[in-house]
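Dear U.,

For the methods section draft, I wanted the exact inputs and outputs in one place so we can describe them consistently. I've listed the two proteins in the order they'll appear in the manuscript figures. Please don't edit the token lines directly; just add comments below if something needs changing.

First protein:
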Amino acid sequence: MTTTANEKENTAPQLVRYLSIIECPFWTDRQKNKQSEEQMETILQNWLRIVNIKQGWIYDLDKIVTKYAKHFQLLKVLRGHQSEIRKVRISPDGRKVLSASHDGTIRLWDIVSGVQIQIFEGHSDWVLVAEFSPYGDIIASGSSDKTIRLWDVKTGKELMILRGHLYPVWCVNFSPDGNNI
């Protein structure tokens, strides 16, 4: 399969449109303007060119992106947060969605029905990250309030607060066995 010149020419604009639709976490309303879309398109065009030149085995990456990006569709909108959403994660069993927001909450949703199952409240500032444990029974969240909090998925209760960070907590991860964070 070969990529036509027209397909290659349209790849970056398609990616920009897609990224605009999904609203990347760092792309706020204030930054959404024609100039930032043009900058993103320039970056993507350059990146696609570099990948095509330096990585011969991915010579048709732009064709792959063009082929599959046009088939993405909106399946559901989950409403509830009062501010920007920083992180979204799917549970290990694939049945729940977790969202962390600048409104200071973490929300748990049923992936099929879209119904909100639980709200986890306790952080005093933006929630920047939330992750499921490997077994999906515990959630760890990090915040601008400089804490990590552990939550019981079933009850919604806060299990523990880990203090001591000097700066906002941007990232949390569980070890593969779930025993360490």
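Second protein (the one for the lower panel):
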Amino acid sequence: MPERRKLQPKKSDKTDKRQKTDIRNGHLRFGLLGKSVVQSLPIGVVAFDPDLKIIEANSQAAKLIELGDYIDKSLAKGTDDKIQPGWTEQLKSVVSTGKTCGFDSVNYTLNDKTKSLRIVCTPLKKAKTARNLGGTVIIEDISEKVNIQRQLANAERLAAVGKLASKVAHELNNPMDGILRYINLAMRIVEQENLEKPKEYLTQ
């Protein structure tokens, strides 16, 4: 009988498995202390693999976005389904290029409430080889900061309008002051000349 040959897995399959194993082992090496620190952070942290599948997320992330199986879909759920390809492209670019990207003041709706989020996407690398294993998404709720900025902007606009109104009033007062002086002068002349009819017009 001919000897059976064992099928060797494809190189790409081996690479994918090794990457996912590295991610899991990385989390194991991180240990309980690291997990405790991540869970206690006031910001959301989500780790994902090269396929954008969520590997791990802290409790704060679950409060800020609707977490599913994939990070791009999770981000798209609360923003706009039409821009999901945008999230997918950005996150895959982070994994492939190893470059960080960020988004300020992203309006995200969760449970009928819209929050303003700052979202930063960073690559996740293996320490020794610097090989990209996926990435992390850091999410911060900046709704309060955005509201304060809006209030300050409104206050500045009101102050500018007030200054403009003051200048306009000043410019209007100049000709009005001249008109009043002429009226007073005319009144004195009329009184001196004892002219009743013009006096009647000027006092109306």
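Candidate sentences for the figure legend, describing the second protein: The chain has a mean pLDDT of 77. The two ends are 127 Å apart (CA to CA).

Thanks,
Y.
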